[in-house]
Design a protein that fits this description.
single chain, alpha/beta, Purple Acid Phosphatase, chain A, domain 2, 7-stranded mixed sheet, 5 helices, 28% strand
Amino acid sequence: MMAFVFAQQEAYRLVQISDCHVLAEADDWFCGVQPYRQLELLLSQLQHNPPDAVILTGDLTQDHSLSSYQLIAALFSKWSCPVFYLPGNHDDIELMQQAFAAPPFCTETELSLGNWRLCLLNSKGPTPAGYFDTTRQQQLQQQLVSYPPDSAVWLFCHHHISPMGSFIDEHIQLDAAALWQILTSDPRIKGLAHGHCHYAYATLQQGIQLVGCPASSVQFLLTPDYQSVAGRPGYLEWVFNASADMNTAVHWQFLEG
C-alpha cells in the first residue's frame, strides 16, 4: 500500500470534515439545513487559512447520488492541498471514487507526516452499522508491522467504537472488540478519530484517545430517540508535530465555519 508522504516540516495542520449529507441539488434540505450550503460556508471560511490537508470521514452524501459527490468535488476544485476521504454508511464507494477522480482528491489511505502515520480505515458494511471484518483487521495489522518502531499512529474511520449512550449506538462498529484488541496491543497507536455521531467529544479509554468529529450538516443530541440540532457547520482542526514527542505530539480543537 502506497502512502502519501508529506514534505518534512515541524508540524502539520489538518482539517477533518464529516457527515456532510449533501443531496443531489445544492438547495435541498436535510433536518432543517441545506447541507451543501453548510459545506460551502465552511470551505469558504477555511480558504482564508488553508490547512496542509483535508480528511473527509464519511457520510458525504445523504441520497447516494452521483450529483451530490459532484457538488462536493466542485467545491474543492480550486483547492491546492490534498483531500483524502473514506466512506461512511451512507456513501456509495464507486460513485464517490468516480466523482473524486481528479486532484485535489487523493486515494491514499495512509499518510506519513514526519514520525506520524495516519491510517484511514474503511468501516462501511452491508448495514448502517460499522463493519471491520477479519480481512480488514489483517490489513491494518500488516500496515502496523511495516511502520518504524519509533513511529506514532493515529486512526481515522467513520463509525464510533465505544457506546455514546444514545440512539446512534444502534449503528455502532460491530467489530469493535476486535478493533480494540488491535488498538491496545500496539503502544504506537495513540488515538482514533471518527464521524457518524454528529457530536463533538474527546475521551481517553484504555489508553487510547477517542475523538468525535462534529458534522458539517447538523449535530445529534445524546438522547435515546433521534434528535438533531441545526447550527453552523462543525469540523475538527488537527496539528500533528513531526517529532511525535507525546508531550506536544498532537492537538485538536472543535470549530465552526
